[in-house]
Amino acid sequence: MGSLKSVIAVAFGSGAYGMIFPTLWMISYNYSPWRLGLLMILAILGLGLWIIQGHNLWETETISGGKTYKWLYNLTTISTLFLAVGAFYIVLYFLFLMTALIFVDPEFYMGQVNASSLPTLMNYLQVAWITASVGTITGAVGVGLENEEDVRSTTYGYRQRARYRQMQRRKEDDDTESSE
């Protein structure tokens, strides 16, 4: 995920901007943990699928033409990508938790969400949770700004990139022969 700097920048920037306004605080105060968890899962799935689709990471054919290798490559891509996106989400979560704890004044928070008591640690955990989810969703926009080759080099190992180039050359050679 190191090469996806714009994703991290867009996700943190949009989440931090959203945290300035009490809307995310109110939503986090009123949403149950299962709803926040569902939003988190949708955000992680959305970003992962957006990366796969937007950068053509889904294998439709292999050099050998075998379905087993195609499914193995796709399963590997999905596994590594969603582990990376999950790690990305966790990093965002802790960044937003620290931001909320430092910058969200307890008395102001209490007045904005119409609470009768000062916020607890759980309230701050929930603010960070929803902000990380919203940041992850908006971070998907940053994926579109990334170079496809950079994403491929991050996602695929050297051997898979070499196979992919070889497959592209074969395809170009076949296209050249058929046009002659």
Straight-line distance between termini: 43 Å
* DSSP, total strands: 0
Q: Portion of residues in helices? A: over 70%
Structural class from helices and strands?
mainly alpha
Give the count of helical stretches. 8
- Detail the poorly predicted runs: none
What's the structural domain tally?
1
The biggest beta sheet reads: none
Label the overall shape: elongated
What is the gyration radius calculated from CA atoms? Answer: 21 Å
Mean pLDDT: 82
What pattern of helices and strands is seen along the backbone? HHHHHHHH
> What is the percentage of strand-forming residues?
under 5%
Helices and strands, with pairings:
Elements (H helix, E strand, L loop, with lengths): L4 H16 L2 H8 L2 H22 L12 H37 L2 H7 L8 H23 L4 H8 L2 H22 L1
Helix pairs in contact: 1-4, 1-6, 2-6, 3-4, 3-6, 4-6
